[in-house]
TrEMBL record:
The lineage of its organism: Bacteria, Bacillati, Cyanobacteriota, Cyanophyceae, Oscillatoriophycideae. It comes from the Bacteria. GO terms for molecular function: biotin--[biotin carboxyl-carrier protein] ligase activity. GO terms for cellular component: cytoplasm. It comes from Crocosphaera watsonii WH 8501. Keywords: Ligase. Residues 4-196 form the BPL/LPL catalytic domain. This is Biotin--acetyl-CoA-carboxylase ligase.
Length: 257
């Protein structure tokens, strides 16, 4: 499946963004780091029709069959290293906020998944380069199911049976890219607290009951460090836990959203 860079470029809010298009790569995130090492300045973007070793969270491989969107955006920035979780927060929010403008009612599943009708539509993977406790460069990797085969509980945009205005993989790439930059610009202009309030508004799990060490808790939000906030109540006491990503699996509802 060939990708036409011209169709992407004309839909970008930053049309000067350099695009690098590939048929098959190991990982678009790795391609972007390689382009930086070769002297290419950030920002830039790499898109591939297929990945053979896509990188997901916690060292997992990302299934990257032909027909999906696999892109990575390289950014040059100055963010304190301890705020690395902000990268995924602003990217996920920006994409999930932009897609509904085209008729796709996407929500967020903590910490980095895009969901549609309770199924996984895509995910975000951020990587960084750090010097003297400061993030100087980052790569935001995004995978979204367009018409590719997906493992359960995945869903593709082309299998979504309600009207929307996403007519091609190139349009999806532009919407996604514009979403990442929208999230980044919003973060720079308004700060993490404002961004986080907006992120939580489209988080699918707020109010959900979860069991932690035999105790029932209620999900109440996400911290500025990307931790899931869970309220635990017992007779005469109330405690809020902050759970780092990877410590609790929320699963998928696989219902209408």
């Amino acid at each position: 499946m060939s990708i036409d860079p011209r169709k992407i470029q004309i839909q970008l809010q930053k049309p000067e963004l350099p695009l690098h298009i590939f048929d098959t790569v190991t990982s678009t995130n790795q391609v972007v780091w390689d382009l930086l090492a070769e002297g290419n300045p950030f920002p830039l973007m790499a898109i591939a029709s297929q990945q053979t070793a896509g990188r997901g969270q916690w060292g997992r491989n990302w299934v990257s069959a032909v027909g999906g969107l696999y892109l990575s955006i390289g950014l040059k920035l100055q963010i304190t290293a301890q705020n690395a979780p902000h990268l995924t927060l602003f990217s996920a929010w920006g994409i999930a906020e932009n897609l509904p403008r085209y008729g796709l009612p996407v929500k967020l599943k903590w910490p980095n998944d895009l969901i549609l009708q309770g199924r996984k539509l895509g995910g975000i993977k951020s990587e960084t380069r750090i010097q003297q406790e400061t993030i100087t460069h980052c790569v935001i990797g995004v995978g979204i199911n367009w018409c590719n085969q997906t493992p359960d509980p995945g869903i593709t945009i082309q299998s979504y049976d309600k009207p929307h205005n996403i007519d091609s993989l190139e349009t999806l790439a532009a919407i996604t890219t514009n979403g990442v930059f929208r999230g980044y610009d919003h973060y720079l202009s308004n700060g993490i607290d404002n961004l986080l309030r907006n992120y939580i508004e489209i988080l699918d799990s707020v109010g959900r009951k979860v069991i932690i060490e035999g105790m029932t808790g209620t999900i109440i939000g996400v911290s500025t460090q990307g931790e899931l906030k869970v309220s635990l109540q017992a007779p005469g006491s109330k405690t809020t836990l902050k759970l780092p990503p990877g410590t609790l699996s929320l699963g998928y509802s696989q219902g209408e959203t």
